[in-house]
Write a structure and sequence with these properties.
By secondary structure, the protein is mainly beta. It has helices spanning 4-11, 118-121; strands at residues 19-26, 34-38, 44-48, 65-73, 78-83. It has two helices and five strands, in the order αβββββα. The two termini are 18 Å apart.
């Protein structure tokens, strides 16, 4: 497990929209939860079901290597990711409410992740 201080240190240079090549490490319930992705950091990555195709059979399988962008980060042990490859992104993404950041989320790509993590930045 990564400590809060270490998590802040890792996230300090991360930016929303930053792209990482990642490997899908776990797909616990295709079509229901989301996928876990290793992006080469000690903090794990996760893609939520709301960003993935409706059919679990269209999700990337374990071992799939693809590009993922930083979508969100909060006090959880994970960095939330969005698939960069349209094959792994829900088909209605650009027209759905998922395409815009929810209220309170950063509105500009490349904003530092830690600027929106008041709980974690107070630890640093």
């Amino acid at each position: 497990m990564v400590t809060d201080v270490e998590r802040v240190r890792i996230r300090r240079d991360l930016r929303f929209g930053q792209v990482f090549e990642g490997s899908v490490v776990k797909v616990p319930r295709p079509g229901a939860i989301g996928i876990f992705v290793d992006i080469g950091l000690r903090v794990g990555g996760f893609v939520d079901v709301m960003l993935l195709p409706d059919e679990g059979t269209d999700w990337p399988a374990e071992g799939t290597v693809a590009d993922f962008e930083i979508w969100w980060a909060d006090s959880r042990q994970q960095i939330r990711l969005k698939p960069s490859d349209s094959r792994y992104l829900r088909t209605d993404f650009t027209t759905s409410s998922n395409a815009s950041f929810p209220i309170g989320w950063p509105t500009s790509a490349s904003q530092l992740v830690t600027q929106n993590l008041s709980l974690l930045t107070s630890i640093a």
